[in-house]
Here is the input.
Amino acid sequence: MAWVSAGPLVNPAIDTILADTGAIVSGGGGNLQMIVASTVACVVVLERRNALNTANISSQIFPVAAADPYDLKIVVGWADGERFRLRLNAAITGSAQASLITD
Here is the structure.
Protein backbone atom coordinates (compact mmCIF):
# COMPACT_ATOMS: atom_id res chain seq x y z
CA MET A 1 0.00 0.00 0.00
CA ALA A 2 1.21 3.49 -0.83
CA TRP A 3 -0.28 6.67 0.63
CA VAL A 4 0.79 9.99 -0.89
CA SER A 5 -0.14 13.61 -0.22
CA ALA A 6 1.40 17.05 -0.71
CA GLY A 7 0.18 17.77 2.83
CA PRO A 8 -2.00 20.65 3.98
CA LEU A 9 -1.73 23.58 1.57
CA VAL A 10 -2.76 27.19 2.26
CA ASN A 11 -4.14 29.32 -0.60
CA PRO A 12 -3.06 26.85 -3.32
CA ALA A 13 -2.87 28.20 -6.87
CA ILE A 14 -4.69 26.92 -9.95
CA ASP A 15 -3.39 23.53 -11.13
CA THR A 16 -1.65 22.76 -7.82
CA ILE A 17 -0.93 19.04 -7.56
CA LEU A 18 -2.48 17.94 -4.27
CA ALA A 19 -1.31 14.31 -4.50
CA ASP A 20 0.69 12.25 -7.04
CA THR A 21 1.33 8.52 -6.82
CA GLY A 22 4.48 8.74 -8.88
CA ALA A 23 5.10 6.01 -11.45
CA ILE A 24 3.38 2.80 -10.38
CA VAL A 25 5.87 0.04 -11.08
CA SER A 26 3.53 -2.94 -11.24
CA GLY A 27 0.98 -2.79 -14.04
CA GLY A 28 -2.41 -4.40 -13.83
CA GLY A 29 -4.55 -2.49 -11.40
CA GLY A 30 -5.98 -2.46 -7.93
CA ASN A 31 -7.75 -0.24 -5.46
CA LEU A 32 -7.40 3.54 -5.64
CA GLN A 33 -8.72 5.69 -2.82
CA MET A 34 -8.86 9.46 -2.84
CA ILE A 35 -9.52 11.64 0.18
CA VAL A 36 -9.98 15.39 -0.21
CA ALA A 37 -10.77 17.99 2.44
CA SER A 38 -10.94 21.76 2.15
CA THR A 39 -12.00 24.75 4.24
CA VAL A 40 -13.75 26.19 1.17
CA ALA A 41 -15.61 24.64 -1.75
CA CYS A 42 -13.30 23.53 -4.54
CA VAL A 43 -13.06 21.22 -7.54
CA VAL A 44 -10.33 18.60 -7.89
CA VAL A 45 -9.47 16.60 -10.99
CA LEU A 46 -8.43 12.96 -10.71
CA GLU A 47 -6.03 12.29 -13.58
CA ARG A 48 -4.62 9.02 -14.89
CA ARG A 49 -1.31 9.96 -16.55
CA ASN A 50 0.76 8.12 -19.16
CA ALA A 51 4.09 6.51 -18.25
CA LEU A 52 6.01 9.57 -19.49
CA ASN A 53 3.80 11.84 -17.34
CA THR A 54 3.20 14.06 -20.37
CA ALA A 55 -0.54 13.55 -20.96
CA ASN A 56 -3.75 12.42 -19.34
CA ILE A 57 -5.17 9.05 -20.32
CA SER A 58 -8.40 9.91 -18.55
CA SER A 59 -9.67 12.40 -16.01
CA GLN A 60 -12.72 13.13 -13.86
CA ILE A 61 -13.70 16.22 -11.88
CA PHE A 62 -14.99 16.01 -8.33
CA PRO A 63 -16.61 18.97 -6.57
CA VAL A 64 -15.73 19.13 -2.87
CA ALA A 65 -17.91 21.03 -0.40
CA ALA A 66 -16.37 23.19 2.32
CA ALA A 67 -15.60 21.32 5.55
CA ASP A 68 -17.07 18.09 4.13
CA PRO A 69 -14.30 15.57 3.36
CA TYR A 70 -14.70 13.59 0.15
CA ASP A 71 -13.67 9.94 0.26
CA LEU A 72 -13.92 7.61 -2.73
CA LYS A 73 -12.50 4.13 -3.27
CA ILE A 74 -12.60 2.56 -6.74
CA VAL A 75 -11.07 -0.39 -8.55
CA VAL A 76 -9.05 0.73 -11.58
CA GLY A 77 -6.56 -0.66 -14.05
CA TRP A 78 -3.23 0.84 -15.03
CA ALA A 79 -0.21 -0.02 -17.11
CA ASP A 80 3.36 -0.21 -15.83
CA GLY A 81 4.75 3.27 -15.17
CA GLU A 82 1.44 5.13 -15.21
CA ARG A 83 0.43 7.37 -12.33
CA PHE A 84 -2.59 9.02 -10.76
CA ARG A 85 -2.71 12.53 -9.41
CA LEU A 86 -5.19 14.97 -7.92
CA ARG A 87 -5.01 18.48 -9.35
CA LEU A 88 -6.80 21.57 -8.06
CA ASN A 89 -9.00 22.92 -10.86
CA ALA A 90 -8.95 26.57 -9.68
CA ALA A 91 -7.10 28.60 -7.08
CA ILE A 92 -8.72 28.86 -3.66
CA THR A 93 -8.36 31.13 -0.67
CA GLY A 94 -8.32 28.65 2.17
CA SER A 95 -6.71 25.35 3.04
CA ALA A 96 -6.90 22.01 1.27
CA GLN A 97 -5.34 18.59 1.50
CA ALA A 98 -5.74 15.48 -0.61
CA SER A 99 -4.41 11.93 -0.41
CA LEU A 100 -4.19 9.04 -2.87
CA ILE A 101 -3.91 5.51 -1.54
CA THR A 102 -3.13 2.57 -3.83
CA ASP A 103 -3.04 -1.14 -3.10
Notes: Residues 27 and 63 are 29 Å apart (CA to CA).
